[in-house]
Amino acid sequence: MDQNQNPSPQNNNENGPKNKQPILMLLICIMVVMFLVNLLTMTMQGGSGEIKYSEFVDLLEQGKVQEVQIKGETLRVTLKEQQRMGVKKEVYTVLSEDKTDLVKRLERAGVNDYYTEKPNVVMEILFSLISLIVPIVLMFFLLNMLFRRMNKNGGMMGGVGKSKAKAYVQKETGITFKDVAGQDEAKESLQEVVDFLHNPGKYTAIGAKLPKGALLVGPPGTGKTLLAKAVAGEAHVPFFSLSGSDFVEMFVGVGASRVRDLFEEAKKNAPCIIFIDEVDAIGKSRDSRFGGNDEREQTLNQLLAEMDGFDTSKGLLILAATNRPEVLDPALLRPGRFDRRVIVDRPDLKGRISILKVHAKNVSLDETVDLDAIALATSGAVGSDLANMINEAAILAVKNGRNAVSQKDLFEAVEVVLVGKEKKDRILSKEERRIVSYHEVGHALVSALQKDAEPVQKITIVPRTMGALGYVMQVPEEEKYLNTKAELEAMLVGLLGGRAAEEVVFGNVTTGASNDIEKATQIAKAMITQYGMSEKFGLMGLASVEHEYLNGRATLNCGDATATEIDHEVMKMLKESYEQAKQMLCEHRKTLDKIAAFLIERETITGKEFMEIFHEAEGTEGKEPEPAETAVEATQETPDAEPMTETALQEEEVTADPVSDTPEEKKVQEPVKEDSQESPIQE
User: How far apart are CA 542 and CA 190, in angstroms?
Assistant: First the structure.
């Protein structure tokens, strides 16, 4: 779901300027009106200015007066030389003497252009009305435009109560079901909805109704948002997309207002689709035990009311996506609101192959590429992971100067995504290289010595950027959905093979096995508490999985006394597995030394080279190799979890502390030190 939208930050950033725009526009309107009024007044007055009568007399005596217009008690004087923008300047003054004396004064000054104008009462009244009405009309016009714009944007507060849904049409989404791969079951469920929107008659004829809503549930990155856009693209109807967080604001009631506005807009554009991503932001259960949120609850109540209030015959469909369905309010999940729950889970082997083909269709591939092998090596990966791997492989090909992506690039991209890039600046000492080599060979050799193990694909002691000093990559021959008790026990032995090799060869143990111990403990605890594989507790369920589509963490459902007994049982199981790993390595010490020496020299060996040295050292050349058993699962806490593909050794600093007489117990009881081993897994 890499196209998951997150419009909230953008919208929040846009609200600030929108709130300031109305005030700014109002100030501009006032300034424009004042300027126009001033300009109009100056135009109608001819640009004249008032002077004193004594100044008029002085101008008259100086011969600067060209024309005098007598209008009642007012004199409008046109000057000879002073001009403004090519027009002679006019001034006016108030008559302070008798008109007869004024005429004589004008004749003495040689001004013959003078005349008396009778006052026009009508024109004066008209001028007054114009000077008053025109500014009012202009102000009304500008304010009307301003308020229309504000109403379009949602009012003076920048559309606080307006829906922030982004409307798309089919040509804008550009996504159809052809762009979605690996989710055939989910596509089938949604295709029925699309067909209903296209051909409602054949469904209504039999009495069927359009589902009001469909809830897309699955882990992050599986393509929930992509599926919703594909539905809109296939249906050729408007598509309203927004996130659950878009409804929530600091003001109580805003979210409910936005829900109302959203459904009003959708009803106007019906048939259409409303898509709410991350619906858990507003759809959380209304449980007041731990305090409530009035704004979120009001928004949820309004959403429930709107979903009950619209007619499905108009073709209004609601899609929602979440990866936390367990926190949603039961009223939101009932039939009549969200009629369908569409599971968008991690793709299986066939689905991963299809996803890789979709993302690789625009990438140049050479003849060595085998997408089936890549899909088999990426058990547990989601669509976004696979898309990232394809892109990383293309970048690596360009970096190496090739025009097409090879199989080597793809496998290296898988490693980059899982354990990071090679850390070339980290140089291990000679002793640390030996420790890391024996540790990794211990994992691989124990796996090769057990039945039903996943074949070793690669062993390396080249440090990686994610902290791994080395790792073993194992690729299964086929994808498994169930694991037997014997296979899980073999996983424990394989995980503890690295620590066992350190003790057998060096007599000391290091911090490098901390993550191996952690994962082995998880498997053992799951066997006891979830899978019913303990003789002591039998079929008793002692743990439950929370947040299935996120971290899948298991929580114990038992008392403290039982939890203590579980810890003792886990300790016993791990101790037996560790002793078994040490026994295997002691019996095949020559093989261990030979493979480790070869790995120290080459730093990286392939699975084929490993098996050749193994058969040569064991004297079994030409015989059919026994498949190894250790298949480290991607998630160790659920019985149907995907198997892990690798075991990695991670440590910043390898120490050589002496161990006690009972290293098995120390291994369990000792806390993890500075760094821990990372096992690259596909989540």
Answer: 37
CB-CB contact of 648 with 419 (8 Å): yes
Angle at 235 (CA atoms; ends 336, 238), nearest 5 degrees? 85
Catalytic residue among 90, 440, 569, 651: 440
Q: 22-31, 148-157, 187-196, 345-354: which has the minimum mean pLDDT?
A: 148-157
Rounded-to-integer distance, Cα 633 and Cα 639, Å = 10
Residue range 155-162: mean pLDDT, rounded: 47
CATH number assigned to the domain with residue range 1-159, chosen from the 4 options 3.30.720.210, 3.40.50.280, 3.20.10.10, 3.10.310.20: 3.30.720.210
Residue 439 dihedral angles phi and psi, to the nearest 5°: -60, -50
Average pLDDT over residues 348-359: 90
The Cα–Cα gap between 658 and 655 comes to: 9
- Give residue-wise pLDDT tens across range 296-328: 788 888 888 888 877 666 778 889 999 888 888
Least confident of 77-81, 351-355, 443-447: 77-81
* Helix (H) or strand (E) run with residue 168 in it: strand 166-168
- pTM of the predicted structure, to 2 decimals: 0.64
Position with higher pLDDT, 45 vs 144: 144
pLDDT tens string 436-447: 999 999 999 998
Long-range CB contacts for residues 656-665, cutoff 8 Å, separation at least 24: 656/431, 656/435, 656/506, 656/508, 656/510, 657/508, 657/509, 657/510, 658/507, 658/508, 659/503, 659/507, 659/508, 659/509, 663/503, 663/509, 664/574, 664/575, 664/578, 664/579, 665/571, 665/575
Kindly report the number of other CB atoms within 10 A of residue 40's CB atom.
16
Q: Report how far residue 165's alpha carbon sits from residue 5's, in angstroms, rounded to the nearest whole number.
A: 11
- Matching CATH number, 349-419, of 1.10.8.60, 1.10.10.60, 3.40.50.300, 3.30.70.890: 1.10.8.60
Q: Other CB atoms closer than 10 Å to residue 5's CB: what's the count?
A: 17
> Strands of 49-50's sheet, edge to edge?
49-50, 87-94, 74-84, 65-71, 114-116
β-bridge partners, 115: 69
Q: Is-catalytic flag, 670?
A: no
Judge: domain 166-343, CATH 1.20.120.50: no
Q: What is the pLDDT of residue 44?
A: 53
